[in-house]
Amino acid sequence: MRIVIAEDDPLLREGLALLLRAESLDVVAAVDGPKAFLDAVDTHEPDVAVVDVRMPPTHTDEGIVAAVEARRRRPDLAVLVLSAYVEQAFATDLLIHGSSRLGYLLKERVGRVEEFMTALRRVAGGGTAIDPEVVAQLLSRSRPGRRLDRLSPRELDVLALMAEGLGNTAIAERLVVTEGAVHKHIRNIFAKLDLAPSDRTDRRVAAVLQYLERGAP
């Protein structure tokens, strides 16, 4: 697995590089800004990019903008975004641009090596990894939405785990239910959120977006 790191904090950047190399992963570049990041993506053609949300010069959304551009150049690039805070707009932006091979983690998760590596490998393998704390904080800020109010407490539990990026098997294990029960809950979620089958829309992503977006102030 070839990895590019884009992080302007030198301690965290070097710490990430050491951690990943200790896991026998190939860190081909570790850079401190969006332009250097895009140059590294073009030069090294990595499998995964680990990108800070806030980078120079304005320390606002340069990381997200660069990650979107990197994915435009290399659609198969897996991107794991790191943020110091829960920033709803950036979390939903990741899913708006497609959920495959994308992740959003709080930086504190890096210190929990096993959890961080699990998220990295899930994203590299084509999945989605949304930090559980991101989901929890978005839910705590949320206000009721008419369609989401239709969901039962168990269906909301399932949707919250979908927002974390878990697949049906992992959801079943977390909730200690059968996969058949999870399938049933997800069918009910789609029906109650008025998400009909479509060739243009991933219903799972659309459901998660409704869940996350109801946290808007």
TrEMBL record:
The modification 4-aspartylphosphate is found at residue 52. It holds the Pfam family Response_reg. The keyword Iron does not apply. It comes from the Bacteria. Residues 2-122 form the Response regulatory domain. The keyword Membrane does not apply. This is Response regulator. It comes from Streptosporangium jomthongense.
